[in-house]
Amino acid sequence: MSGARRRGPVAAGIGLGGVLVASLLAAVLIGPADLSPAEVGRVLATHLGLNLFLEPVGLGVEPLSAIRDGMVWQLRAPRALTAAAVGAGLAVCGVVMQSLTRNPLADPYLLGLSSGASLGAVLVLVAGGAAAATLLPVAAFGGALLALGAALGLAGALGQVTPTRTVLAGLAISQLCSAAVSFVIFWSVKGDAFREVMSWLMGSVGSATWVSVAVTGIATLLLGTGLMLCGSVLDAFTFGESAAAALGTDVQRVRWGLLVAVAVLTGALVSQSGSIGFVGLILPHAVRLVTGARHRLLLPLSALAGASFLVWADTIARTVFAPRELPVGIVTAAVGAPVFAFLLWKGRARA
Amino acid sequence: MTRRPPSGAPAPQAGSGRNTAGLTADRVSWGVDGRLILDGVGLEAPAGAVTGLLGPNGSGKSTLLRAIAGIRPPQGGEVVFDGDDLPRMPRRTRARAVALVEQDASTDLPVTVHDAVLLGRIPHRPLLAGASEQDRGVARRALERAGATGLADREVTTLSGGERQRVHLARALAQTPRLLLLDEPTNHLDISAQLHTMRVLRLLADDGVTVLSALHDLNLAAASCDRIVLIADGRVVAAGPAQEVLVPEIISPVYGVHCDVLTHPRTGRPVLSFAPASAASAPTQPVRPG
């Protein structure tokens, strides 16, 4: 029994990894432009430099026309990869925040990060101008970090940084930023700018470029992997922080370190995609219902599940009402909530 | 009436010849918001003995245990265990030597009893490593010792209060501590489970572990502790062998009740009987002279 128990997770990891690769390929294939798998294969082979190996054996491929090539390589590929990186990063951040605060309602945006980022982004969108597109991610990231600083500063000023204080301080900052965002929208946003602001606020990977892939991918690979290695550290918090301290954990240092890592990662993701709900809040619960609470298992499996989930959610968002696009946040909730409800119902006997 | 040992002077020893091993706390203080919860506490808990920590509600028992365990390090004074300065020890090294069974530690997470007990192995393995086969073996033996083997595959959230206490004890045992601190480990337990817990502590002490347990039930302490440390308002009121501390002259003023001490017909240990303080003026039986 115990042997199967340890092989199971590895199999699950490999399985979910396979699902992610398949999802990415499918996301690049699926779309209104009628590209055949062979054509997509040619694009990928061209850009990945596979011709170097294929030509000598007589399998060299011809590049596609610039438009069709661009559709795959400039639109769908970066979009799918950004969705995967954002999904994985948000899921990991959600697990860490829920464990650190021992609060099932915690999500990556807990410390006012999304409201801070929204404030930065909305200010740039309202100001408009030529540099807006470049400035937006920077402003969003800056807003997220400012909100984090304010929330942690407030929590710290109250005394020892306890989970409850962290949650409440984050709540205060996020309400303040939300009010500011609403005020700016109410006061100065009209017409097209309003649509743009709303689509940013609801989250989207629709404007993803290879820069987005680089920012979200590197952030998720570096910080997300770092967080994933902290499985045992988070396990120690299972019975609360004194229990963690009794197991030799430096509770304050771990809490600050992890909060800052989560915040920087979330800030990087938000700067590219806006705040996408559900993935960082419900998905960790869904995975936990299946795998249990052991973080060494929960973290990587959540990352893989979050990545595939957001890739599919985005694919649905852009195809189901094509050419109109749904905000991906609507799809994540509409698809995810029933699945989560099913898992809750299935697990009812255990709780 | 109260006996307060002079600060710094060692309290009487229960087991002779074990003076160097065990726990010694001296002038330990800890306060919050200008209020002193521990006011210069000194105590000794020898290795191989079960020492009971008694005192009324709010006397500082839990705070003292947390100070010794290094969770809320003492703001003044010294805690030495087996010659090591506990508060200045590296955290993980300390966690390999000292385990604490807390009161009412709980979780909402779906974690099995086996995995909960495995948490006790965290200080024993590298930070990034998972549980090894050896860790699992230790966890299994800890479950067995705490009488919780049958619970291994249950989820902690489904356990009764008493079952949960056993799991916490097993988790502490999986830490393979040389100093075991317990904060009212018999709360929520029926009498048979209480006696079982105290028997587990006795067996650990026989293996040379230093056991210091806060207890609420004076009679349980009388029946099963070698030594008693009695605290009130963050100070030690009395310390020594159970028979010397559990006497009416010491217990009555501390708890504000009338107290008679009888002798257990089977074990010969003290049995305490209480009456409201107002009844003390007209006792039906003469108070045994101290």
TrEMBL record, chain B:
<dbReference type="Pfam" id="PF00005">
    <property type="entry name" value="ABC_tran"/>
</dbReference>
<feature type="domain" description="ABC transporter">
    <location>
        <begin position="23"/>
        <end position="258"/>
    </location>
</feature>
<feature type="region of interest" description="Disordered">
    <location>
        <begin position="1"/>
        <end position="22"/>
    </location>
</feature>
<feature type="compositionally biased region" description="Low complexity">
    <location>
        <begin position="1"/>
        <end position="18"/>
    </location>
</feature>
<dbReference type="InterPro" id="IPR003439">
    <property type="entry name" value="ABC_transporter-like_ATP-bd"/>
</dbReference>
<dbReference type="InterPro" id="IPR003593">
    <property type="entry name" value="AAA+_ATPase"/>
</dbReference>
<keyword id="KW-0547">Nucleotide-binding</keyword>
<keyword id="KW-0067">ATP-binding</keyword>
<dbReference type="InterPro" id="IPR022286">
    <property type="entry name" value="ABC_trnsptr_F420-0_ATP-bd_pred"/>
</dbReference>
<dbReference type="GO" id="GO:0005524">
    <property type="term" value="F:ATP binding"/>
</dbReference>
<protein>
    <submittedName>
        <fullName>ATP-binding cassette domain-containing protein</fullName>
    </submittedName>
</protein>
<dbReference type="InterPro" id="IPR027417">
    <property type="entry name" value="P-loop_NTPase"/>
</dbReference>
